[in-house]
Amino acid sequence: MPLSEEQKLNMKKRRESILEVATGLFATEGYEGTTIKKVSEAANISYGSVFTYFKDKEELFRTVVLEPLNEFSDVLFDFNPDAEDPTKELEKMIKTHIHIFSGMNSYLTLVIQVVGQHNKFPEIFSELNQFHDKLLDKVSRLVENGQDKGLFIQQPPFTVAALYTSLLIGVRLNTTDARLSAIWDSYISSIMNLFGPIYK
């Protein structure tokens, strides 16, 4: 007998609850310290119900780390590297990225776990790496565009892009203030300077 719309909605909500709770637990207690039992208790569902959605802890961790990439990619990649005004496009990109990263604290903690233990999570690391390389490539193209137009100083575009993403991650992990507070917006002009815009 097929599920009703209400049953489907309830299952979706339960799955989202599991993922939200698991994200917090994996971020604070690490992979080893997180158990399905802890997840089920924190999500207020039965132990067995977790396995309705995820085969095991490994699959749950993989989903918690990789599924958000689909949501993030729509916004992180929403800039034009071939813009007529690369300086303006750069500022818009940085503002967007700052606002996204400001709300990523728990998630970035998971990313750091995977990167720091890439031999333990090779498949997850590979997918994260591909995502990061794609972002670096697009940011690099925007830098090249600005350099070609004589608006940015000459420096290796890929290096600048890598420093940029590292800075965003570092600022989020080292900042305990609330998401989207005024301090985040105050970083924008300093981050702009990383790209070497030439002010005339």
UniProtKB/TrEMBL annotation:
<dbReference type="InterPro" id="IPR023772">
    <property type="entry name" value="DNA-bd_HTH_TetR-type_CS"/>
</dbReference>
<feature type="domain" description="HTH tetR-type">
    <location>
        <begin position="12"/>
        <end position="72"/>
    </location>
</feature>
<dbReference type="InterPro" id="IPR001647">
    <property type="entry name" value="HTH_TetR"/>
</dbReference>
<dbReference type="InterPro" id="IPR050624">
    <property type="entry name" value="HTH-type_Tx_Regulator"/>
</dbReference>
<protein>
    <submittedName>
        <fullName>Transcriptional regulator</fullName>
    </submittedName>
</protein>
<keyword id="KW-0678">Repressor</keyword>
<dbReference type="Pfam" id="PF00440">
    <property type="entry name" value="TetR_N"/>
</dbReference>
<dbReference type="InterPro" id="IPR009057">
    <property type="entry name" value="Homeodomain-like_sf"/>
</dbReference>
<dbReference type="InterPro" id="IPR036271">
    <property type="entry name" value="Tet_transcr_reg_TetR-rel_C_sf"/>
</dbReference>
<feature type="DNA-binding region" description="H-T-H motif">
    <location>
        <begin position="35"/>
        <end position="54"/>
    </location>
</feature>
<dbReference type="GO" id="GO:0003677">
    <property type="term" value="F:DNA binding"/>
</dbReference>
<keyword id="KW-0238">DNA-binding</keyword>
